[in-house]
Specification:
Elements: H1 2-26, E1 36-43, H2 47-60, E2 64-71, H3 73-81, E3 88-90, H4 94-102, E4 106-116, E5 118-123, E6 143-146, H5 151-163, E7 171-173, H6 176-184, E8 190-194, H7 195-200, E9 205-208, E10 218-225, H8 231-242, H9 244-253
Parallel strand pairs: 1-2, 1-3, 6-7, 6-8
Antiparallel strand pairs: 3-10, 4-10, 5-8, 5-9
Helix pairs in contact: 2-9, 3-4
């Protein structure tokens, strides 16, 4: 009986040690403690680069799942100020970011993490022979632009105004991917889009650089949102965007570094 009682007394100790061992294994995951779902609202022109950054972030933080809402910055800003749940907002222009900051919907001040410049996107082979901005005003030329409230449309308006070029687009799109699709589908002769968008669609379009675009380069700010459901992951993702690894992804996509970096 004594031996039986001793064995029974040892069993709880063994079980406790076993549970402690299991607890140690569970703690061998992401040491930063970042976990859960991260929701990022980002400008349409960031689609390819942020998708890559999201995969990198998930690899570095195994407990995180990154979801994106890509659209025109003006539409995203409206969604955020109307209460759409999101952790991070990355805009293609400070003006649209200001809509969110002025509404008191951010934590701290936004940080510019990249810059982007307009080019003329034309179908592969440039069948219309577009060589400069003024060529877009040729009789019969079909051109797509972004709507003016969208950052790419605002930049196009500034460029065209400064160059004294007046043209009537056949379509005004709500984001830069919409304008680019008109070129890839062969529905227009050209569109004013970002350099990064031409690079992402290099199999279907060519890019025509024009000097006037240097006068309307867009700064891209990013910020953690005040009502972020996952603020820890939001802060970590913004840090990743600004890291050397994140900057390399953006540079490969055709973005320029922020001024002073």
């Amino acid at each position: 009986m004594t031996r039986i009682r001793t064995a029974l007394a040892v069993l709880p100790m063994v079980a406790a040690l076993g549970l402690a061992g299991c607890g140690g294994d569970a703690g061998d995951g992401d040491p930063s403690g970042v976990t859960g779902t991260l929701t990022v609202f980002a400008a349409a022109s960031l689609t390819e680069s942020f998708t890559t950054l999201g995969r990198q972030f998930e690899d570095a933080h195994p407990g995180v799942r990154v979801t994106f809402n890509f659209a025109g910055s003006s539409a995203l800003a409206t969604q955020i100020t109307q209460g759409a749940p999101a952790d991070v907002f990355a805009s293609a222009a400070p003006k649209n970011m200001a809509t969110v900051t002025d509404a008191g919907a951010t934590v701290g001040s936004p940080t510019v993490f990249a810059r982007n410049q307009l080019v003329i996107a034309v179908p592969k082979g440039n069948p219309a022979g577009v060589a400069r901005l003024a060529d877009l005003t040729r009789p019969g030329a079909k051109v797509a632009l972004c709507a003016e409230q969208v950052p790419c449309g605002a930049a196009a308006t500034r460029v065209l105004g400064a160059a004294g070029v007046k043209l009537t687009p056949v379509t005004l799109e709500q984001d830069v991917k919409g304008a680019l699709s008109k070129v890839t589908l062969g529905e227009v002769d050209a569109a004013l889009v970002y350099r990064t968008d031409v690079r992402s669609a290099a199999a279907k379009v060519d890019g025509v650089e024009f000097p006037e675009s240097a006068g309307a380069i867009n700064d891209y700010p990013v910020v953690v949102l005040k009502d972020a459901p996952n603020p820890a992951a939001a802060r970590a993702f913004v840090d990743h965007i600004r890291s050397d690894q994140g900057r390399a992804v953006l540079t490969d996509a055709g973005f320029q570094p922020p001024t002073g970096s």
